[in-house]
Amino acid sequence: MIEIKAFGKTGHMSTRVIFGGAALGSVNQAAADRTLELLLEYGINHIDTAPSYGKGEAEKRVGPWMAEHRKDFFLATKIGLHTYQEAKDEFHSSLERLKVDSVDHLQMHNLTDPDEWETAMGPGGALEALIEARDQGLTHFIGVTGHGFTAPSMHLKSIQRFELNSVLLACNYILMQQPEYARSFNQLVEVCKERDVAVQAIKSVARRPWGSREKTRDTWYEPLEDQDDVDKAVSWLLGNPNLFLVTAADINVLPKILKAADKGALHPSDDQMQALMQEREFELIFEGREVISKP
Predict the structure, then answer these.
(1) What are the C-alpha distances in Å from 114 to residues 144, 152, 163, 186?
(2) Which value, in Å, is the radius of gyration of the alpha carbons in the chain?
(3) Separation between Cα atoms, residue 267 and residue 160, nearest integer Å
(4) How confident is the model over 249-277, as pLDDT tens digits?
(5) Domains (ranges, CATH) in the chain?
(6) Mind listing the pLDDT tens digit for each residue in 37-79?
(7) Residue 155: how many CB atoms within 10 A of its CB?
(8) Whether the Cβ atoms of residue 28 and residue 20 lie closer than 8 Å to each other
(9) What CA–CA distances, in Å, run from 99 to 35, 63, 80, 213, 266?
(10) How confident is the model at residue 288 (pLDDT cuts 50, 70, 90)?
(11) Would you state the pLDDT for residue 3?
């Protein structure tokens, strides 16, 4: 049974595993529909997607589900553009693709570049479009997402600027072995606990960059695939009670993540995780290790 937890102060009791809609960016509707059945089988009640996934195709795959299953899911999408008008237009296109009148949660996507952050959070920026959408009932909650080593610090900066409902960023075992990232990540989590902001974790089953190896999955990194390995990685992440896990961007990896989460906490030891990291030759998937130390 996959655990359910309050998603910050939104009032939504979310499965701690959230379906990452990026997995639908390059599949047909029949494959997407099979994925929906799997989500329903495991009781997943939260979908996170974005207009950039498959250039809108992921949202189009979710759209046909909504006529019958809108009430079954807390629906989240994102805004990747940074000015008010761009963000407003992008969001309304998402509503059309999703075939809904509103979403539950709207997030500013990958907001980690300082200049883009100033544009989005400043006068005439994307945040104004999100607030307007919330005031109009087109969304209920607002969050921010980010990738890379600077995401925790930039999210802290965002929280200080605006009362967010969620943050989303990377967390996995090898990444948390980087002292500066771990310090910054844990600082963010503590602030989110104090303010009742939901923390969503991505890249939980990342193994290493593809490099010169043949790309066999839709994830932009090479994922763990052996079920025992996935069990350890997923259980390790869910062992932090403050985190939600957003599933990987591949429908073939998804069943393994759901199966791992359904088993409950296995509590792998640090020795087991170190052994896994060595055996599977983990590598960091982000370039550069700079961390903005103060928001």
Answers:
(1) 14, 13, 19, 21
(2) 18
(3) 34
(4) 999 999 999 999 999 878 899 999 999 99
(5) 4-279 (3.20.20.100)
(6) 999 999 999 999 999 999 999 999 999 999 999 999 999 999 9
(7) 29
(8) no
(9) 18, 5, 19, 38, 39
(10) low
(11) 97
Residues in the chain: 295
pTM of this structure: 0.96
Q: Report strand pairing: 105-108 vs 74-79.
A: parallel
Residue 221 tokens, joined: 């990194």
